[in-house]
Design goal:
The protein is mainly alpha-helical and 287 residues long. Helix content is 74%, strand content 0%.
Length: 287
């Protein structure tokens, strides 16, 4: 991987869990996600126009945009449920383990063959994921529903990454960003408004109208984080390799969970996250 691409991916990896942690700390995480989506629209639209990119160029890749929108909805809704139910440091690493999912699907459904070291990497990922959740005196799968949503988020981000990597070869990243959130924002409002079955569900999605500054910060961090990944794809970064380097965000998310969110069992979770991240790198690099 070229050095400048690796630097972009590493900066993105540092920013991604930071804005996730800011949403985790918000009183209404789903409202924060809606505010974030609005911010991304407000950033991507002017960015495209100022950069001289044709917003209508998206018509060339409608099929990829449809995949991206669907995957983004699946990922974001699952991620919000995960953040509401579980610790960032325990479940964020699993949600970000998309290279492991890609490798597993390739082996099971596409007949891909892996070297012995790749199998070792898969075992490291599985061991790290379970180690992250283990608590002495509590069953291994203590929170299976949260784990399920973390796994669904993982699948969503894997599909999203593959579609984005192909789309940026045709259309500018900011244009893809703009149209992705044009179509996902209504889905976020509908899905999050129905959370908990409360009649006031929709009104609580708009705290950013009263106090926009915190959500501006989240939106800028999120936009820069994702834009760097799209630019890495556009610059020739191979999707599996880029996503392997992105796993640098896993140990960082554990540190944020312990130092900022005061989550417990940090020693165990740091070791588990490092094992998981190392296994993903092995899987992708040895394939």
């Amino acid at each position: 991987m070229e050095l400048h691409i690796a630097i972009m991916v590493l900066v993105s990896a540092a920013l991604h869990p930071l804005w996730n942690a800011m949403i985790k700390r918000d009183a209404v995480p789903e409202g924060a996600f809606v505010g974030n989506a609005v911010m991304l629209l407000l950033l991507a639209g002017p960015h495209s126009l100022i950069g001289g990119y044709d917003l209508l160029a998206i018509t060339q890749i409608w099929h990829l945009l449809a995949i991206t929108v669907t995957a983004k909805l699946v990922y974001t809704i699952s991620l919000v449920v995960m953040l509401r139910r579980g610790d960032l440091s325990a479940y964020y690493p699993i949600a970000r383990s998309s290279p492991a999912f890609i490798a597993a699907v390739s082996a099971v459904f596409l007949g891909a063959l892996y070297a012995p070291m790749a199998l070792v990497g898969i075992a490291m990922v599985i061991a790290g994921a379970f180690w992250l959740q283990y608590k002495r005196g509590v069953r291994m799968l203590d929170n299976p529903v949260t784990l399920m949503f973390a796994l669904i988020a993982m699948v969503g981000t894997a599909v999203n990454s593959i579609a984005d990597a192909r789309a940026v070869q045709v259309v500018a990243p900011s244009v893809i960003f703009f149209w992705t959130f044009v179509f996902t924002l209504p889905g976020f409002v509908l899905a999050f408004g129905l959370f908990d079955g409360k009649s006031q569900g929709f009104t609580r999605l708009f705290p950013w109208l009263r106090n926009p500054l915190p959500y501006v910060k989240i939106g800028v961090l999120c936009y820069v984080s994702y834009l760097l990944i799209l630019l890495a794809y556009e610059g020739g970064g191979e999707v599996a390799a880029v996503n392997a380097v992105r796993q640098a965000s896993i140990p960082f998310s554990v540190l944020l969970g312990g130092l900022w969110l005061k989550e417990a069992d940090m020693g165990q979770r740091i070791l588990g996250s490092l094992l998981l991240a190392a296994g993903i790198v092995v899987i992708v690099m040895v394939r």
